Amino acid sequence: MTLLKREEWQGIVRDVDWTFGYVDDDAVYPDWQSGTGKIPREAWSKWEESYKVSYPDYVATQREKESSAYAVKAALQRSRTFETLDEGWKSATKMHFGGVSLVEYAGLLGELKMARFGLSPAWRNMAVFGALDEMRHAQITLFFGHEFVAKDPQYDWSQKAFHTNDWASISLRTLFDGMVIGPDVVDLAIQLPMTFETGFTNLQFVALSSDALEAGDINFANMISSIQTDEARHAQQGGPTLELLVEHDPVRAQWTIDKYFWFSARAFAALTGPVMDYYTPVEHRRQSYREFMEEWIIDQFVRTLQDYGLRRPWYWDEFMQGLDTWHHSLHLGFWNYRPTIWWKPAGGVDAESREWLREKYPDWDKFYLDKWTVIAENINAGNIEATLPETLPWLCSMCHLPNINPVYGRDGKWKTRNYPLKHNGTTYYFCTKGCRQIWWEDRDAVNHATVVDRFLAGEIQPMDLPGVLGWMGLTPEVMGDDAHGYAWAKSFADPRATGSGLLVGAR
Amino acid sequence: MDNPVGPILRMCDEVDLIAAAIEDDNPGREIAVIDRGSYVRIHASGHLRVTAGSLKRHLGETFEIRSLEAIMSSFSGRIHTTSDSVEWSLGARPAAQEPVG
């Protein structure tokens, strides 16, 4: 029997839609959920996905993907691969499992919302596949992380992290509540499938797989690149939605993209940047974070946005400058605040790594060498205590990441600026001009209180660092510490090691 | 290369065979293959396509074009899929235009 080709029958089964007789269209598709705004209701009939899939094809292909991912896992589970992985790399995976698994579940809720409230039957159909995809991602990520719980209790945070008040988790929840849980489905489609999945997730799921493979973690490389094959398909809900929005409301299209491009850039500077430039052992790094950002975002994704008739975001210069500082500062912050995270950050600044950092980031010495030198000096003097936090960092009221981006003042001195804004009698502080601007434009939106806001409001008791750690859910066996027992600091003890004039040995 | 478009394939045995199928389907075109270990970019300027026929010729009669999805982690440009081919290009596609397999 010859089967009909998909295009000969798909339109009939896909386009299930009807005119309501007993209720208004508005009651079924209220604007606060369906979000059509200036796009005329009838324009949605033009929505057409370019990456098509039928249900039989979906099931067959997903089965192949799952069989392949689990077969690799089963084979490697019997090997001693895990024991041979570098501790810094293992932390890259702990960060991923804890930071991503339940975010995938948030993605599922977003897909279901589009499957219910999208104004085109073709879109609703595609979102159902997206929901099945995200269910797979949450499950596979939890399951792969769970394998290691018996070997290392930090892996327990694969499941736990998102449920805690850890500051990194609050930052993530803030991002995804704004991107996925809160918005109507048009904004959601621009924010999640278009900006986050067509653009940024490629960094963590494809680019990082290349470091994973070099680091010997075949299982992880296989899992993340398999996940992204689903994303590549369901992310295509973004394109047709963006086309309609650009046609009927270009200002909203540009603003929504700009906003989530910015938030994504901040989030991936925290999630992917430290992993690529510090946690992956230097000999296993395929490219720097900046080079991967140039390949995937500045080249590939921005070209896609321009292809849809959009401009570069208004903050372009600040974003580009941030490629040389944001993730380096966040790495320093994670390392310094290591008891507050569920992984063991690698220092990643031994002599060989510093050479690599200088080559990739010519300004690295200028901004960061003196900080790491002081830390190393304390470590080498046996004073680890001095390298641990005593209080909370000031967190950005928009992205909830610490305000630690360095700039050079006119006096030639390094400083960390915060960007304050007074509103209704309260002064808010931001990490960047971009975060401040977005917060101001969206000032009526519901924002999470930062950990610092909660601390000052007396929500965290007792009001000291142990109190904060307890409130964040961290227990002694999970709190992070240096991945390599501070071995990197020894390279600073040799006055010839840095050539910077800031040497411990020279003092 | 200006405006590179095309698939980004994940680590698997079939990458070279898919690249060969793409070469067949885009005769005379400059095709860049960029190998980053766990992923490989196969790009051409402005437009690239692969057909079910070429895939079967290189990967075997049982290979179905839908299975390309399991290998393709990402792509550059806009995609257009049918039962007979997958194309990558830039710019909006007129609604009535269907590719010839």
- The percent range for helix content of chain B is 10-25%
Supply the CATH class of chain A: Mainly Alpha
Quaternary structure annotation: heterodimer
Helix content of chain A: 55-70%
- The secondary structure category of chain A is mainly alpha
Measured by residues with Cβ under 8 Å of the partner chain's Cβ, the largest interface is:
A-B, 42 and 33 residues
> Got a strand count of chain B?
7
Largest beta-sheet details of chain A: 2 strands, antiparallel
Quote the average pLDDT of chain B. Answer: 92
Count up the helices of chain A: 23
Q: Strand fraction band of chain B?
A: 35-45%
Main sheet: strands, sense, barrel of chain B? 4 strands, antiparallel
As residue ranges, the low-confidence spans of chain A are: 496-507
Question: How would you name the CATH homologous superfamily of chain A?
Answer: Ribonucleotide Reductase, subunit A
Structure description:
The complex is a heterodimer of chains A (507) and B (101). Chain A has a single domain (52-503), classed as Ribonucleotide Reductase, subunit A (Orthogonal Bundle). Chain A has a two-stranded antiparallel sheet. A two-stranded antiparallel sheet of chain A has the order 3-4. Chain A has 23 helices and 4 strands. The longest helix of chain A is centred in the first third of the chain and has 31 residues, at 87-117. In chain A, helix 6 runs parallel beside helix 9 (167-181) and helix 6 (87-117) runs antiparallel to helix 10 (185-214). Chain A has 507 residues and is mainly α. Chain A starts with 5 loop residues before the first helix and ends in a 14-residue tail after the last helix. With 101 residues, chain B is an alpha+beta fold. In chain B, strands 2-3-1-5 form a 4-stranded antiparallel sheet. A 3-stranded antiparallel sheet of chain B has the order 4-7-6. The N and C termini of chain B lie far apart (27 Å). The A-B interface holds A 5-7, 46, 48, 50-53, 57, 60-61, 64-65, 68, 202, 205-207, 209-210, 212-214, 221-222, 225-226, 228-229, 231-233, 236, 239, 243, 286-287, 300, 303-304, 307 and B 3, 8, 10-11, 36-39, 64, 66-67, 69-84, 90-93, 95, 98.
